[in-house]
Amino acid sequence: MNALDVESIRKDFPILDRQINGNPLVYLDSGNTSQKPRQVIDAVREHYERHNANVARSVHTLGTESTEAFEGAREKVAAFVGAPAAAEIVFTKNSTEAINLVAHAFTPASDDPRFRLGPGDEIVVTEMEHHSNIVPWQLLAQRTGATLKWFGMTDEGRLDLSRIDELITERTKLVSFVHYSNILGTINPVGVLVAKARQVGALVLLDGSQSVPHLPVDVAALGADFVAFTGHKMLGPTGIGALWGRFELLDAMPPFLGGGSMIETVSMTGTTFMPPPARFEAGTPPIAQAVGLGAAVDYLTAVGMPAIEAYEKTVTAYALDALRSVPGVRVIGPESTVDRGATISFTVEGVHPHDVGQILDDEGVQVRVGHHCARPTCVRFGVPATTRASFYLYTTTDEIDALVRGVERVRKVFA
Questions:
Q1: Beta-carbon neighbour count of residue 88 at 10 Å?
Q2: Tens digits of per-residue pLDDT, 175-227?
Q3: 366-397 per-residue burial string, b: 16 or more CB within 10 A, e: under 16
Q4: Which of 13, 70, 94, 384 gives the lowest tally of CB atoms within 10 Å of its CB?
Q5: Known CDD domains for this protein (predicted)?
Q6: Is 234 helix (H, G, I), strand (E, B) or coil?
């Protein structure tokens, strides 16, 4: 597809034909999880119907077919994010597991100075992170005695870089931050943070959970050392995610979990381990889910990530203007589409977000309410929670209009 034909795209998503409470389904919660096209659903079903077997364990036909499909999906994912080699893609169950896998590599006793972490060393994150990119580093700091530091935010929902020289120093061992905020929609200045980290010899992990599904992402060009992302936000199944890492770093990291498939030789006195990515994929992996993720990558590639990004920018601009027209609505985060993704969090004056969400659901409009696993961001902006509308390649301006009508009804109900 050379241009984004949204009406044709929507026909590929069976769930979009549903009705909710007698109203057409308006799905505006893709930042939480995306819907799945028939092509992905069919790929998973066909795998189970025709090729189901375990991988890397058998020489029979089904085992070979399953292994080829699983490793083929890895190659597709690697190409999709610009990884230099498929061996740099580790399949995980989600971004959370991918981030924890990296955190597990840091210990005070590491033989590799890049992963040696203890008292006096520092980890740097930001105030806008998803809990999955805060809690693992808090736990790591507790285990090792390292110090956790963070960037604050401006009133517009951008990172406050005024203290970058104080926060990223010679003591910094890792800088871990979100590429595209799941609550604010902010797209962060990766180049600035990576360049500063490089000056002090720190490693960089990028949370790409929202960016990989919505933007053209080239991990080599971004310059980070690790990028975590997840399949269910990019049209793929749940239960499958990925960690991209520079091979020389993955090769220096210890196993995350022990068991079958990640070993070379096991004896009662010791074990040797496979090279990456197998070293980090103990046990039976999510095979059908990986096949589904490969089909999702095929779909997104056919549509074209630049076209998706451009279309979503148009939809987001339309939504920002429409929401601003409703009295009492406050957008939390950037007010323009500059360095901003297709996610808008907002509040309605005098109305709790849970009540907003309930009334919108009555209208068939599906949004997320709460702190979106980003409570520090809510605290920063002085709100208990927000209502969040998040868009994707199948979102239409008619659906934005339905959202706005629903918000206007909220105001009338709670007047």
A1: 25
A2: 999 999 999 999 999 999 999 999 999 999 999 999 999 999 999 999 999 99
A3: bbbbbbbbbebbbebbebebbbbbbbbbbbbe
A4: 384
A5: SufS_like
A6: coil
- What lies within 8 Å, CB to CB, of 256 at 6+ separation is 100, 101, 104, 280, 282
The helix (run of H) or strand (run of E) holding residue 405 is helix 397-413
Instruction: Give the chain's length.
Output: 415
- The answer to whether residues 349 and 330 touch, using CB atoms and an 8 Å cutoff, is yes
In the predicted model, is pLDDT for residue 1 greater than 50? Answer: no
Q: What domains are defined for the chain? A: 6-30+304-413 (3.90.1150.10), 43-301 (3.40.640.10)
What is the rounded CA–CA span in Å between residue 239 and residue 401?
Answer: 33
Containing 320, the helix (H) or strand (E) segment is helix 305-324
| 299 contacts: CB under 8 Å, gap ≥ 6 | 12, 37, 39, 40, 235
Catalytic residue IDs = 373
Q: Please tell me whether residue 267 adopts helix, strand or coil conformation.
A: strand
Long-range contacts of 105-113 (CB under 8 A, 24+ apart): 105/253, 105/254, 106/140, 106/144, 106/146, 106/173, 106/174, 107/143, 107/144, 108/144, 108/145, 112/252
Sequence letter at residue 120:
G
Q: Rounded CA gap, 382 and 224, in Å?
A: 32
Number of H helices, E strands in the chain: 15, 17
Give the type of residue at 331: V
DSSP 52-96: ---SSS--SHHHHHHHHHHHHHHHHHHHHTT-S-GGGEEEESSHH
User: In 178-304, where does DSSP find H-type helix?
Assistant: 190-200, 211-214, 219-222, 247-250, 287-303
* Global pTM value: 0.97
* 3 state DSSP class of 318: helix
Q: Which amino acid is at 271?
A: T
Kindly state the helix (H) or strand (E) to which residue 402 belongs, with its residue range.
helix 397-413
